[in-house]
Amino acid sequence: MFQYVPNKLTIEALDLCLTVRIATPWNITAQEMAAPYTATAKQNPGRRAWLVEFRHPLRLDANNKPGRKTRKGLGTTDPVRAQELTRQLSKLLENETLWSIGAREEAAKLFDPEVIDIFYGEIEPRTTDARAIRDRLLPLPEARAGYAKVVLVGVPGAGKTTLIRQLLGADPKSEAFPSTSPNRTTMYPSEFVLRPGQFEAVVTFMTEHETRFEVEESVSAAISEAADQDAKRVARAFLEKSDLRFRLDCILGDLEIAQDEPDPYADDAPDSEHGVVGAEVREVASHDRQRNAEFVRACVERIFSIQQKYAQPVEAEFGSLDTLALTDRIAALDLIEEQATASDEFVALVSDILDELRGKFEPLQAVGRLDKTTTGWPRAWVMKCKPEERKALLGSLRYFSGISYRWWGELLTPLVNGIRVQGPFKPRWTDEEPRLVLMDAEGLGHKANPSVDLPEHTVAALHEADVILLVDSAKTGMTHGAAGKALESIANAGCTRKLAVAFTHMDLASSPEFKGQQLLDHVFLGMRNIVDNELAKNVSPDATRFLLSRLEHHTFFLGNIHKADAKGAARELNRLLSHLTAAQPAVRRPVAFPRYSEAHLMLVIQEAARDFRAQWHGLLGMAQDPSFKPRAWQIIKALTRRYAENWGEDFELRPTANLRTALETAVSRLLEAPIEWAGEASPEQKRDAIERLKSIVTAKLPELTRKRLRERPQSAWRDAWTPRGIGSTKTRNIRIEGIFERWVPIPNARSDKTDIEFLNEIEEIVRAALKDFEDEVAGQAISALDTDAIRAA
Ligand SMILES: Nc1nc2c(ncn2[C@@H]2O[C@H](COP(=O)(O)OP(=O)(O)OP(=O)(O)O)[C@@H](O)[C@H]2O)c(=O)[nH]1
Ligand SMILES: [Mg+2]
Question: pTM of the full predicted structure?
Answer without folding.
Answer: 0.84
